[in-house]
């Protein structure tokens, strides 16, 4: 089984532009898969309808043949051979109709059911989770912006309320993202099952309805092919089961490890976790102050990261970062400052750019 593309659950909380870009690739893939599956479902529904119609038509034909004897044709003798022959034909058609009924039932169970289940229980669920993820993202960014705008002079009670709101929305966002990412990852396994099983079910049902020497349906190479596909599907099912267990354990582990990251200001009773001062690179979101008309200011949330001694910035819509300044330049310093009554503010000062 070739490697399956996966979203990294560890990156869900950071929500970097790179992670967002990879997520958009998975979402585009899911949209195309949903459209393909819906069209495939329509094709299978036509087969199902045609099989039901064939069964009903065969029954109607058998009933019509039996009705020949009751017509009392004026020129047809009472002991007509044609009448008895048609009656025998109607008996054979009843047998064929019974086989067709079994085939229709098998189509419903082995072809339509897994495909409908894939559409309704998996793809529609991901569509719902997509909306929940978008809402959680919006709520998180709203509460984050509210926290960043909270003045330093506000009382402690107000600050605690804002911090608790941010905690709740950040945790909700993280949990939603973890489950959304894991569902998208699982979809890469499920597509290998639920797109093959309906066709396997169709062919198995057809083969069951043919008898002795139907070379097209019962040829040995088809038997080998179906056997190989069946083994592959079972293998994917086994891989999916293992991946699901690993994902559940990983989500639990990530949630426990991320508890301290839900708070912008950790509670007093939370153990202190010292910062890692040995990092060669650093990245994360900052609010950057910019000027607007009439000398007013605006704070924009940007993703900053260091790269080769340069400070880079990047918006969520951008795929690559833009150079802010060279941190190796002589005279560049970082210092605390006060700006717009905001908390945790600092500035990077360069002799060249001032």
TrEMBL record:
<feature type="domain" description="BAR">
    <location>
        <begin position="7"/>
        <end position="243"/>
    </location>
</feature>
<dbReference type="GO" id="GO:0010008">
    <property type="term" value="C:endosome membrane"/>
</dbReference>
<dbReference type="InterPro" id="IPR047181">
    <property type="entry name" value="DP13A/B"/>
</dbReference>
<dbReference type="InterPro" id="IPR004148">
    <property type="entry name" value="BAR_dom"/>
</dbReference>
<dbReference type="GO" id="GO:0023052">
    <property type="term" value="P:signaling"/>
</dbReference>
<dbReference type="InterPro" id="IPR027267">
    <property type="entry name" value="AH/BAR_dom_sf"/>
</dbReference>
<dbReference type="Pfam" id="PF16746">
    <property type="entry name" value="BAR_3"/>
</dbReference>
<dbReference type="InterPro" id="IPR011993">
    <property type="entry name" value="PH-like_dom_sf"/>
</dbReference>
<protein>
    <recommendedName>
        <fullName>BAR domain-containing protein</fullName>
    </recommendedName>
</protein>
